[in-house]
């Protein structure tokens, strides 16, 4: 029995919408899901439909709608104690975070999706598709080994449910692995993976496999075309496989870049360069470095080796930026774990009271007060900064509390990243944060304030809370100077707060 069979309403419509999505026809699935939501009253049916609708918006690349759709779907899923629904929701949320270029949030959803799907006992087709979607999310976020493990799990669960193995071939996973190797300078490794994809396609064609997903066509076609662009001939006709495949942004971009590769392989590099310039492609499909790498291959084929070298260096730099972000996330994770271990090891210092804000992971007001009291006892002084968000109530009213929580988490991450070693950051109350810079004076506080502004400028707030004006107000004071207490310093800093320009305009 399929997971869908347990639903009380609209099972046939949801099954039809699911088949359309699996065949790359999300634009047709969306109105069916909207129709179900217009009439369904069963909470589980509605939760499933909302999750699938969220997935359809991701496939169609409608990024501006993702935050609201995710909030609504997440709220519905929270009311349903079902591991599959949670796993599917988090897998889609990871893909949404990838489209919004929020790696930290994406990784969190990956972990949650994996744990939820692992807890599902039933070996049905819906669970298999959940593992498939998690594999896609792993792949897009750059965790290629985890993606291969998840897609193998999808195949095993799918086989138990009677599904053919080619349904979960997922050539796009290995394709992204291949181009990632090429972006990092391992072209031989890239070609080895592309040959394996070609061999798999040949095997499927030879056995007459007729259950291959339409969405796989573009990935197979691009694999063949990319191999041709690197100078290797293929038996299969890449142009044939670059046709069809559905209405997703992924298919559209793979088809366009595939034809760029074939034009290059046909000895027309200048035309290929013009094609690259004529149609922008999403940086999230094959990585931001892929167009730059193709540009390098075009310049090399045209004999402009200086331009090829410059494009190659740019591609490598784009690929390295992702690695740097992963490293930063790893360091942040280790730091958080060490802080938690320190709290557990020293109960006499922290007592039984909760000293950490559960939403942001930052110290809370109580821990701030203890920290400053200890510092003042030692006769030390510090700069105190008070930062809060203006317009935050409107965020909650328009986008929901989930988006408001994401804004607070994002600000907490920004503050944590820009602090100096030994600085202290706390969530004081609501949308108000306090930073403590031990031993710092006016000059050091001004530098940290500048770094906070620069870091918030780098965040894409418009995607997270579109159309909602938000501004940051920050004020500074000193504690420990002339006997000034924490309360007095906070009051003085709050009185000195000056708003910056709207964060939602900083993209």
Describe this structure in words.
With 507 residues, the protein is α+β, with helices and mostly antiparallel strands. The protein is 65% helix and 7% strand. It has 23 helices and five strands. It has helices at 11-22, 26-39, 43-59, 66-78, 83-99, 103-118, 125-140, 144-160, 171-183, 187-206, 214-229, 238-241, 249-265, 269-278, 289-302, 305-345, 347-350, 365-377, 392-399, 401-418, 442-457, 461-464, 486-495, and strands spanning 382-390, 424-429, 432-438, 471-479, 498-499. Strands 2-3-1-4-5 form a five-stranded antiparallel sheet, sandwiched between helices. Strand 2 (424-429) and strand 3 (432-438) form a beta hairpin. Helix 7 runs parallel beside helix 9. The longest helix is centred in the middle third of the chain and has 41 residues, at 305-345.
Q: Total helix count?
A: 23
**What is the CA-CA span between the terminal residues?**
47 Å
- Structural class estimated from helices and strands: alpha+beta
Note poorly predicted spans. 347-353, 500-507
**For the report, how would you describe the main beta sheet?**
5 strands, antiparallel
Strand order of the largest sheet: 2-3-1-4-5
Write down the overall geometry. Answer: globular
Strand content: 5-15%
Radius of gyration computed on alpha carbons: 26 Å
Oligomer: single chain
Helix fraction by DSSP (H/I, runs of at least 4): 55-70%
* Count of β-strands: 5
What order do the helices and strands follow?
HHHHHHHHHHHHHHHHHHEHHEEHHEHE
Average residue pLDDT: 84
